[in-house]
Specification:
With about 290 residues, this protein is of the alpha/beta class. Helices cover about 30% and strands about 25% of the residues. It catalyses: D-ribose 5-phosphate + ATP = 5-phospho-alpha-D-ribose 1-diphosphate + AMP + H(+).
């Protein structure tokens, strides 16, 4: 609804229900009679209950297509299955490719906020919207003279993007994960954090293991206050306990999910204005 207000856009009511056998039903109520040239936006963050939300989104896209919509933009603040972006162990699928393929079939453009690996989007008509600068700007209220730190090389683009926008230093840690046990170890690259505050930037906080290990290493190197600025705060599997025990001063999260966590340590930041800016450009293109 916040996105619709920013765009002054008409909102179409979606009727949803689940049949007794578990199948999902959706219906768009009050659609305009002629959608031909209209820029139709289907906005759905696919969390929690990712499987159901994914099916709902596919059905909504089909409903718009059947109603004559041809200029369709999918806004997915959070896309599930994006972390399985390659075959890590023999016999695995590339789940991210599967999800992107089925979602892309009936859309002109897709907008996603901070996808785990932007390279997986390839030549598909998707735009990856970075918001790390918005989150780090909020984090600056709780730190002084900070270094923006990526917990691994994969998050370096997020850290460098925020640091360049806010004129801050940045660096990254070397992370190794055992693909069988899931155990994470952190090794230094070339950081100098002694006596400095640190803002760790990442796309997802899932179980919090990566962040806890990063904080442990940074404290061993003399870091002072450590704040987390992450886009998608799933916070599952005892993540909050790990984060508390790791001694983070604050957790800054974007409002990309369908749920929030009630904790005085967490600040949520709206990224709707950033999304609406990209959406306006995309609709003007069409």
């Amino acid at each position: 609804m916040e996105l619709a207000k920013l765009l002054a856009a008409e909102v179409v009511e979606v009727e949803k229900k689940v049949f007794p056998d578990g199948e999902v039903y959706v219906r768009l109520k009050g659609l305009p009679s002629d959608l031909g040239s209209t820029c139709v936006t289907v906005a759905n963050t696919m969390y929690p209950n990712q499987d159901t939300a994914l099916v709902e989104t596919l059905l909504l896209l089909n409903a718009v297509h059947k109603a004559g919509g041809r200029n369709v933009v999918l806004v997915a603040p959070y896309l599930p299955y994006m972390r399985q972006d390659k075959v890590f162990l023999q016999g695995e699928p590339v789940s991210a490719e599967v999800v992107l393929e089925v979602l892309t079939r009936t859309i002109k453009r897709g907008l996603v906020v901070d996808v785990h690996n932007p390279g997986i989007l390839g030549s598909r008509p998707w735009i990856n919207i970075l918001v790390s600068d918005i989150l780090v700007a909020q984090a600056l209220k709780y730190v002084a003279d900070p270094i923006v730190m990526a917990p691994d090389r994969g998050a370096l683009e997020r850290a460098s993007f925020a640091a360049s926008k806010l004129n801050l230093e940045f660096d990254y840690l070397i992370k190794e994960r055992d693909r069988v046990t899931g155990e994470v170890t952190v090794k230094p690259k070339s950081v100098s954090v002694a006596g400095r505050d640190v803002v760790i930037v990442d796309d997802i906080i899932s179980t919090g293991g990566t962040l806890a290990e990063a904080a442990k290493f940074l404290r061993s190197q003399g870091a002072r206050r450590i704040v987390v600025a992450a886009t998608h705060g799933l916070l599952v599997g005892g993540a909050m306990k790990k984060i508390y025990e790791a001694g983070f001063s604050k957790i800054i999260l974007a409002d990309t999910l369908g749920v929030t966590h009630n904790s005085p340590s967490i600040n949520y930041v709206s990224v709707a204005e950033r999304i609406s800016g990209f959406l306006k450009e995309v609709c003007l293109e069409q």
